[in-house]
Design goal:
The chain has 27 helices and eleven strands. With 676 residues, it is α+β, with helices and mostly antiparallel strands. It folds into four domains: 139 residues, Up-down Bundle (Glutathione S-transferase Yfyf (Class Pi), Chain A, domain 2), CATH 1.20.1050; 64 residues, no CATH class; 168 residues, Neurolysin, domain 3 (Orthogonal Bundle); 243 residues, Neurolysin, domain 3, CATH 1.10.1370.40. The strands form four sheets. Strands 5-6-7-11-8 form a five-stranded mixed β-sheet. It is globular. The protein starts with 19 loop residues before the first helix and ends in a 6-residue tail after the last helix.
């Protein structure tokens, strides 16, 4: 048998050699090896940090890298074979990690180490590692007895499987949809979208234009298409994702909520939110829910005012006898109102944001502010569009590398994300580099144009790179505390703070150049963009609150043992946050990957986007006052946040950077919902 490339994953992952048939065999072997090391650790008389805690920290390192690679490939080049490979390893890895947390010998050894003089004399980072490890063991059921332990294993294995099924159903339903229309139905839609959809149809030997449910198609359709029936058809097609025969996630929503609630109860928590949030900044479900509801209350007056203004604008221009604004009308009419108010069309920005320029500018900002240099390099990728880069710190040390994969494919899941393949960090004789990735579903190149991004897509690139920097610049010696291994409601601070530079003139001057003429972004266009930035900010905020509040309500207040249908309960919750009536069978939650496509994911944690927005709005105020390219401020952010991972309490790291606790009003001020 040829050598399995997944058993020889070095820093340069051999993506050109890895095939689905390699996955299960590699994971079986790595599980066996990790199991042997686990038994040795549990029985070892060694109770020093290096011989016990350090080995525990790296026990599943190679296994974690390989399982991440398998899950990643199923997300970016999905096929029946890759999905089957992922499904084959899921129950095995889930069982292993559950048994690791429940291993009585390891738990006894851990407690024995905690009682030693060595443990009492640990430095703060290693002491935190010990404390969090003990807390994790307790949270994962180390103190459970017999039948309860067996039941926890069943729950974890089933959760891994059913959440994977949920994500696959969303991916498959999204990929399966296509609609062919003639050019007449695309009146009002930007020419670049018309060109791309026509080319897509031609590549498939069809006439007209091929429309899909990928965001670079649906967003401009819902925003610009004059054909109201087409907008309705696309909106309704989006609502079918997650509830079609053979891909119906609605029963899975209840089952996932039941499994999560039972698991939380088994581990001594009132609900899944309390279980998940115990080690996060919020601390519990009620605190997070109150945070969401407070923001909702403070935003609602502006929200209702915005909706009254849009309704009046609609009546004025569509006529008194026009149908009431429906779900497929609001974005379209809001864009018309914005263009009228600000003489600003976001599409006018695209020619100034070719992807390569955006990346060059992002990397230059990173060099100036954080002292890290990014250069393109070469390594095998999983698709021809994949690119690879090296990062060096200000001393020229290679600290990280990363891959990018920016454009949509029918075999790739929706959204944008960052992940880590390998966690490096300091060692006695130098530094092991980190390895990560950024993926997105951005507007792809046209036949005669480069990839021209929307302002939202530019913000997304900056956002994901903020996560990447958190991974890449970590100097934590403990791998399980490195990089993005932080409280989930803190993890979005490094990503969201990066978005602020996109609205700064001096930053844009580094990269916002017309792809044909090289002309800088005109000042009048920049002024309009800034003026329009907070247009319908309350509606934008309420949309986010709808996701966070509904998530928490399902995981705190909803009882999955009741007769109430969670999909209907979620619909009623979301109806409070949208300015149009929702159909009775509205089932967006059945396609909500963030909440239900992994055993935890953003389940009971979606509020963290807004939580971290408060942090980023406040933290950027220091850059705004000291200079957006101020190297000392950037160094302070690296030293206090980006390099420290989870090695210190996040509230303390924030205080270290800002000299105080967060100002909760900073976000509302930035959004124009409070006076500046």
């Amino acid at each position: 048998m040829t050598e399995n490339p997944l058993l020889n994953v070095g820093f340069r992952v051999p993506f050109d050699q890895i095939k689905p048939e390699h996955a299960e065999a590699a994971v079986d072997q790595l599980l066996s090896e990790a199991g042997e090391r686990l038994e040795r650790l549990a029985k070892s008389g060694e109770r020093g940090f290096q011989g016990f805690m350090a080995d525990l920290d790296t026990l599943t390192e190679q296994l974690g890298t390989v399982t991440t690679i398998v899950h990643h490939l199923d997300a970016v080049v999905s096929s029946p074979e890759w999905t089957a490979a992922k499904q084959a390893i899921l129950p095995k890895t889930s069982e292993f990690y559950t048994n690791l947390s429940l291993h009585p010998g390891l738990w006894a050894a851990l407690k024995a180490f905690a009682a030693t003089d060595d443990a009492a004399g640990l430095d703060p980072v290693r002491a935190r590692h010990l404390k969090l490890t003990i807390d994790d063991f307790k949270r994962e059921g180390a103190d459970l007895e017999g039948g309860d332990k067996a039941r926890l294993l069943e729950l974890n294995t089933r959760l891994a499987r059913v959440t994977s099924d949920f994500g696959k159903n969303v991916l498959d339903a999204t990929a399966a949809y296509e609609l062919y229309v003639d050019a007449g139905r695309l009146k009002g839609v930007p020419q670049r979208v018309q060109d791309a959809t026509r080319e897509d149809a031609q590549e498939r030997g069809k006439e007209g234009h091929r429309l899909t449910l990928h965001q670079p198609i649906t967003t401009p359709l819902m925003t610009y298409a004059d054909d109201r029936e087409l907008r309705q058809e696309i909106w309704e097609a989006q609502q079918q994702v997650g509830k079609q025969d053979g891909r119906d996630n609605r029963p899975l929503v209840r089952e996932i909520l039941e499994l999560r609630r039972e698991k939380a109860g088994l581990l001594g928590f009132a609900n899944f939110a309390d279980y998940v949030l115990q080690d996060r900044m919020a601390g519990g479900g009620e605190t997070a829910l109150n945070f969401e509801r407070d923001l909702e209350t403070r935003t609602r007056p502006a929200y209702e005012r915005e909706n009254d203004e849009l309704e009046a604008y609609h009546r004025q221009h569509a006529g008194a006898d026009a149908p009431a604004l429906a779900a497929w009308d609001v974005t379209y009419w809001a864009e018309k109102q914005r263009q009228a108010q600000y003489d600003f069309d976001e599409e006018a920005l695209r020619p100034y944001f070719p992807l390569d320029n955006v990346l060059s500018g992002l990397f230059e900002i990173t060099r100036r502010v954080f002292g890290a240099s990014v250069k393109e390099a070469q390594a095998p990728g999983w698709h021809p569009e994949v690119r690879y880069y090296d990062i060096q710190d200000e001393n020229g040390t290679h600290v990280a590398s990363f891959y990018t994969d920016w454009f949509p494919r029918d075999t790739k899941r929706a959204g944008a994300w960052m992940n880590g393949f390998i966690t490096g960090g300091p060692r006695q004789d130098g530094v092991d580099p980190h390895l990560g990735l950024m993926c997105g579903n951005m507007t792809p190149p046209g036949k005669d144009t480069p990839a021209l991004l929307s302002i939202r897509e530019v913000e997304t690139v900056f956002h994901e790179f903020g996560h990447l920097l958190h991974h890449a610049l970590s100097t934590v010696p403990i791998k399980s505390l490195s990089g993005t291994s932080v409280a989930w409601d803190f993890v979005e601070l490094p990503s969201q703070i990066m978005e602020n530079w996109v609205m700064e003139r001096d930053a844009l001057d580094l990269f916002a150049r017309h792809y044909q003429t090289g002309e800088a972004l005109p000042q009048d266009l920049f002024d309009k963009m800034v003026a329009a930035r907070n247009y319908r900010a309350a509606n934008t905020s309420m949309r986010q609150y709808s996701f966070g509040a509904t998530d928490l309500m399902l995981h705190v207040e909803y009882d999955p043992a009741s007769d109430a249908d969670p999909v209907a309960v979620a619909r009623d919750s979301m109806a409070r946050f949208v300015p149009y009536p929702l159909p009775q069978d509205y089932s967006m939650v059945a396609a909500f990957n963030h909440l239900f496509s992994s055993p935890v994911g953003y389940g009971a944690g979606y509020y963290s986007y807004k939580w971290a927005e408060v942090l980023d709005a406040d933290a950027f105020s220091r850059f705004a006052s000291e200079g957006i390219f101020n190297r000392d401020t950037g160094r302070a952010f690296v030293d206090s946040v980006l390099s420290r991972g989870g090695s210190e309490d996040p509230a303390q790291l924030y205080r270290e950077f800002m000299g105080r606790d967060p100002d909760a009003d900073a976000l509302l001020r930035r959004s124009g919902l409070l006076p500046a």
